[in-house]
Write a structure and sequence with these properties.
heterodimer, A: mainly alpha, 5 helices, extended, B: 229 residues, Arp2/3 complex 21 kDa subunit ARPC3
Chain lengths: 110, 229
């Protein structure tokens, strides 16, 4: 088997394992990454929401925020995990497509 | 390490975009000269690997979470400029589609993870590797050290961006406008957690894949040196 094929398998395995990035923090009661809290959290953290932060934080409405789908959280950690995997697949397909496109445009045709 | 919208003031956002724009232009020019068409699939795998490894959040029990970036591995395989492009694409997709990292912070996040980490990791790897053969144990060690140190340098750079906000933006009432934590908090926390946990993940992942490729396809490990600048 070619190396690239094997490496693709590695990526697929990592995609299937990706919900661990959701489950482990939940299990060990770890909160958000430092410096990646939602604007509302600042009330608790420092007693107020920094005004500029509040204004800018809603600037972009991502279609799939936090690698989750609306409504799927009702299905619990299983639903979230499934959405996480599907998000990873969508994100990676787009990323790979873009890199292939950029690579084809830039690379030497040898 | 993905800075969201609102944490950085407009000056920092603009400055990091202003740094990254020429970096992206130079990267495109160098990659145009050096990247071979048959290497493009590997670059895509590198971007995919980085994308998914950044989703694997690792908890510090009772504390925060963090993750590896995978950027050093891509730099080792394809050189820093190609890696810069691959990690940039992954970060842009994460920001636009999944809200992971802000859109005003794409310049900053790419500076930290697609530029600082990539170049730091690449040159540390080259420095420690020296003239050793591509299948030597020294290369595996070099990859691990490069992963660990480079992720921490990126974390430090991120912490500085957070930490200078209170110095730059303060209202008369004493409230801060953007990230309210100064350097005295941001640096120890960000660096501490990456030195303690997340850096080791980057180290292990980078070293293991290099070790695997030494057995599987050692020719791949020689390519980045041909295209180095």
């Amino acid at each position: 088997m070619r190396t690239t094929t094997k490496l693709w398998f590695g990526v697929v395995i990592l995609i299937l394992l990706s919900p661990l990035g959701l489950i482990l923090p939940e299990r060990f009661k770890a909160s958000d990454a430092w410096g990646e809290w939602g604007a509302d959290s600042f009330k608790e953290l420092v007693g107020y929401i920094p005004r500029g932060l509040e204004k800018l934080s809603g600037l972009w409405k991502a279609p799939l925020p936090d690698y989750a789908f609306k409504g799927w959280e009702e299905k619990g950690l299983f639903g979230l995990s499934l959405a996480y995997i599907v998000s990873a697949v969508i994100g990676i397909v787009i990323t790979v497509g873009l890199v292939l496109l950029i690579g084809m445009i830039l690379s030497k045709k040898k | 390490m993905h800075i969201p919208d609102g944490y950085l003031g407009p000056e920092t956002s603009a400055a990091t975009y202003a740094i990254m724009l020429p970096v992206w232009v130079i990267a495109s020019k160098i990659v145009r000269k050096t990247l071979k068409a048959k290497q493009v699939p590997l670059l895509a795998i590198g971007a995919a690997f980085s994308f998914v490894i950044m989703m694997l959040n690792v908890p510090i029990p009772g504390g925060t979470t963090g993750h590896a970036v995978g950027a050093v591995l891509v730099a080792i395989l394809l050189g820093p400029w190609a890696a810069c492009i691959a990690i940039t694409v992954a970060l842009v997709v994460q920001a636009l589609l999944f809200g992971d990292g802000g859109i005003t912070a794409i310049g900053a996040n790419c500076f930290n993870m697609a530029f600082v980490e990539v170049f730091a990791g690449y040159y540390i790897y080259r420095l420690i590797s020296g003239s050793s053969s591509v299948t030597s144990g020294r290369r595996v060690f070099a990859a691990g050290v490069a992963g660990y140190v480079a992720l921490n340098i990126a974390a430090l750079s991120t912490a500085v961006m957070f930490g200078i906000q209170p110095l730059l933006h303060k209202t008369v009432s004493g409230q801060f406008l953007y990230c309210p934590y100064g350097l005295n908090v941001a640096i120890p926390v960000m660096l501490g957690e990456h030195l303690l946990i997340f850096g080791w993940i980057e180290a292990i992942v980078t070293a293991l894949v290099v070790k695997y490729l030494q057995k599987q396809d050692p020719a791949l490990l020689g390519t980045s040196e041909e295209i180095a600048v």
